[in-house]
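The following block was generated as part of the benchmark described in Methods. Ligand: coenzyme A.
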Amino acid sequence: MRILQNTPEFKPSEVVVAEEVIDSYLHDPIASGYYTLVAEIGSTVVGYICYGPTPLTEGTWDLYWAAVTREERGQGIGSALWKAAEAEIKQAQGRLAIIETSSTSEYENTRRFHLGRGYGEIARIPDFYAPGDDKLILQKRLR
Ligand SMILES: CC(C)(COP(=O)(O)OP(=O)(O)OC[C@H]1O[C@@H](n2cnc3c(N)ncnc32)[C@H](O)[C@@H]1OP(=O)(O)O)[C@@H](O)C(=O)NCCC(=O)NCCS
């Protein structure tokens, strides 16, 4: 929660939803349909990623949320979290990884990050989140 609350890209309403997802995972990891991995330096959590199989699909997985503490960004922690999540997804016979993100300038660094990890834009819904804020759907084929 400390990381999420200090992530300027996330609006307070988004932090609430991210917390609900973590709570759901912690309450019942199997029934929740969510998987969560954390990155630690020493015993301090410095990042996390949450993902899960997309309901009613064969082998499609969504990467829902991820964040790295601002002080530790740019050192490969986000990449390591993504790599670990993708390895787990492949292990579970996943074949397609999907990310939904915003087109706003606040997410420019994030978009650069995703493109650098092999994700490509496959769809855009104009004005989805708000007027002028499109939804971008990115995908990567894992097998
Ligand atoms: C996106 C995010 C998870 C990346 O984590 P990270 O640990 O900084 O990532 P890495 O160090 O592995 O990779 C850095 C890469 O991301 C890019 N990047 C994105 N934001 C960056 C930042 N604030 N500082 C440095 N590099 C950043 C760099 O271009 C770099 O690309 P390269 O490896 O091709 O040169 C992190 O910036 C973050 O928490 N962002 C805010 C929340 C968010 O957008 N989450 C994802 C959507 S839910």
